[in-house]
Amino acid sequence: MRLIKDIKMIKITNNSGLILEGGGMRGVFTCGVLDCFMDNNIRFPYSIGVSAGACNGLSYVSRQRGRAKFSNIDLLKKYNYIGIKHLIMKGNIMDFDLLFHTFPNEIIPYDYEELAKTEQRFEMVTTSCKTGEACYFEEKHNPERVIDIVKASSSLPFVCPISYVDGEPMLDGGIADSIPIMRARELGYDNNVVVLTRNKGYRKSEKDMKIVNFFYRKYPAIRKAIMMRNKLYNEQISMIEKMEERGEIIVIRPEKPIEVDRMERDTKKLLALYEEGYKIAERILRY
Q1: What pLDDT, on a 0 to 100 scale, did the predictor assign at position 7?
Q2: What is the mean pLDDT of the chain?
């Protein structure tokens, strides 16, 4: 694959990767970044996404500019697909039937043909309920399996049901590997851009998390992974900041603490965060 573009003196070549953090509705920041990349015809040989990053990354590799924004902002306003009512009625805080079936099949059709023919690699991260470890899936040719994987990657603990990939129980990829920079490096992609959905310096609380006994009784490994999640996340962020300081990676992130919640429904806030992502990416590309 030919040279794509220089970003802050880093040449994106065959060994370049794009790592997309999750963060629920904070992922609209990533939507802005990816739309800016598409507007500038920037393609990475390898991308990997977690949870919301997996959802948004799918539209990036299929080259459907604006699709992720439309899904996360315009259709949220119209269909109100997040909220306690869904948790009460369907046992899921998000309307997965709408998000992963009606949307990609009818309302904003996903371009599976483009996904199948693209030379770009794209992996999505889930967490195995049996082992508590991260699983990395790459699927281009089976639409049903693509949906199974991205749904599992987005299945938040406690407020979403367990999902299944190839018959195996899975939950949100962010439990075991929120920012899979090391996965990219293990595959030989050591010239990376990381898109985060929190400002620099952000850390999660590491207070002991207690899980009610009836949650995941069959899966002690996932219970342990959930309890360790915040500590692991903070370690990953510290590692990324050190790599950034050494000039080993480029990090694109919000510049200030954001007011958008994981389950945010205020579309004005979401649009502002999308626009921030676009502008920051645009500024980096023009560096």
Answers
A1: 43
A2: 93
